Amino acid sequence: MRTQVAIIGAGPSGLLLGQLLHKAGIEAVIVERQTPEYVLGRIRAGVLEQVTTDLLDEAGVGQRMHAEGLVHTGFDMLFNGQRHRIDLEGLTGGKKVMVYGQTEVTRDLMDARQAAGLTTIYEASNVQVLDFDTKTPRVTFEKDGQTHTIACDFIAGCDGFHGVCRASVPRNAIQEFEKVYPFGWLGLLSDTPPVHHELIYANSDRGFALCSQRSHTRSRYYLQVPLTDKVEQWSDEAFWAELKRRLDPEAAEQLVTGPSIEKSIAPLRSFVTEPLRFGRMFLAGDAGHIVPPTGAKGLNLAATDVKYLSNALIEFYQDKTEAGIDGYSARCLKRIWRAERFSWWFTSIMHQFPDEGAINAKLQQAELDYLMHSESGLRTIAENYVGLPLDFGQA
Ligand code: RFL
Ligand code: PHB
Fold first, then answer.
1. Distant-in-sequence, close-in-space partners of 3: CB < 8 Å, separation ≥ 6
2. For residue 103, how many C-alpha atoms fall within 13 Å in the half-sphere facing its CB?
3. Within 13 Å, how many C-alpha atoms sit on residue 78's CB side?
4. Ligand nearest to the CA of 265
5. Regarding the domain delimited by 5-177+268-386, which CATH topology (the fold level of the hierarchy) does it fall under?
6. Is the CATH number 3.30.9.10 carried by domain 182-267?
7. CA–CA distances in Å: residue 141 to residues 6, 108, 131, 338
8. pLDDT digits (tens, 9 = 90+) for 177-208
9. Omega of the bond prior to 275 within 30 degrees of 0, cis?
10. Measuring from atom 5 of ligand 2, which residue has the nearest CA?
11. Residue 395 has pLDDT above 60, yes or no
12. pLDDT by residue (tens digit) across 341-366?
């Protein structure tokens, strides 16, 4: 088989890249190791920046998002027993975010890909990326007991944190920056109305909690838990009881509980790979970087990487210039580090750090109190949360 761009991974990064390239008349094949149902079963991101919703529109898949997604103009921060609203719209000159689940984004992209008759190979095992330091890279994989080869011009590594692309780069050609946090997030999805019409990020002395949502009838909640906790230890009843303890009395009283549809624990990590280009292979999305979910930046960063990459590939094929692919890494990394910094900082002021002593909690309270009473403090949170413009760092 031959194609122009072999995309590894059919998560949001790979699918969006496939769609943007298709719109530009560039051929791509996606190779994914899981089934479509498995990919859709992973409950992850919920908040899309305007840059991301614009990209989904550009890819021609924004219709259902605009019909069913929830536009949010602010969110609440809870600490010291009190809630404070961050007026995103007022503080950023009119910017908003869209609450629309990653599952739905993925489903919309999968449907569009299928409708356009584009090739996605699911359940591919032993995927290998080869010769990406030459002009004739190859991808090999096994399926139905046979080994297949894809010859291509470029490989796009959209295969997430545990993928094969980054792992195939020689160790002396790559630098990795990493911070692992001493806790995880236990997430619960339920068909219950959200406790509040906007998100609540809570710093409590029992640990962080987040009240999010997927629709007016479906809620997503998270609790900070020790890394040693196992999801089996957490009954639904225990989850709801703990969440109530971390909320203010009004929210605790209004919380509607019900059976979980999904429950899982995710570790928290800050991680960046430099560079993101290795000859004719590029890393995009979680394959190249991870942010702790507190700032809701992971999927949004993935979308902007993909936009930069599709622009670079379009320039290569249409304008016969390599300037875009040469600049890909530096262009992405500038934006990535800004989002890494915000996600790390927001995580550090909202969670309990067991090893840092009582002084840490006191300093957090002082910082939060300062931020809530400072116009520039509030603006700092709001402008980072709604996200940077796509052309950030171009001047
Ligand atoms: P994905 O989604 O991990 O997809 C990678 C795909 O590659 C496949 N794959 C392979 N395929 C072939 N061969 C191999 N060897 C392969 N190895 C892996 C995998 O099966 C998979 O299908 O990466 P992608 O596409 O870069 O997307 C990134 C996002 O998923 C991620 O950044 C976000 O989910 C992060 N995130 C959030 N981001 C936001 O922007 N806003 C949020 O509100 C938000 N909340 C979250 C989050 C992530 C979370 N977890 C669980 C880490 C909340 C949570 C709890
Ligand atoms: C979610 O709804 O899953 C979600 C929302 C905001 C975050 C992280 C996750 O910061």
1. 27, 28, 29, 119, 150, 151, 152
2. 13
3. 26
4. 1
5. FAD/NAD(P)-binding domain (3.50.50)
6. yes
7. 12, 26, 15, 36
8. 999 999 999 999 999 999 999 999 999 999 99
9. yes
10. 46
11. no
12. 999 999 999 999 989 989 999 999 99
What is the C-alpha to C-alpha distance for residues 10 and 203, in angstroms, rounded to an integer? 35
Tell me, in angstroms, the distance from the centre of ligand 1 to residue 46's CA: 12
Which of 301, 288, 270 has its CA nearest to residue 384? 301
Residue type, 312: A
Instruction: Give the pTM.
Output: 0.96
Domain spans in the chain, listed from the N-terminal domain onward = 5-177+268-386, 182-267
Residue 388 binned pLDDT confidence (cut-offs 50, 70, 90)? confident
pLDDT recorded at residue 393: 61
Residues with CB under 6 A from ligand 2: 45-47, 212, 220, 293-294, 296
Q: Is the CB of 285 under 6 A from ligand 1?
A: yes
| Ligand 1 nearest-atom number relative to CA 163 | 17
Ligand nearest to the CA of 218: 2
Residue whose CA is closest, atom 13 of ligand 1? 33
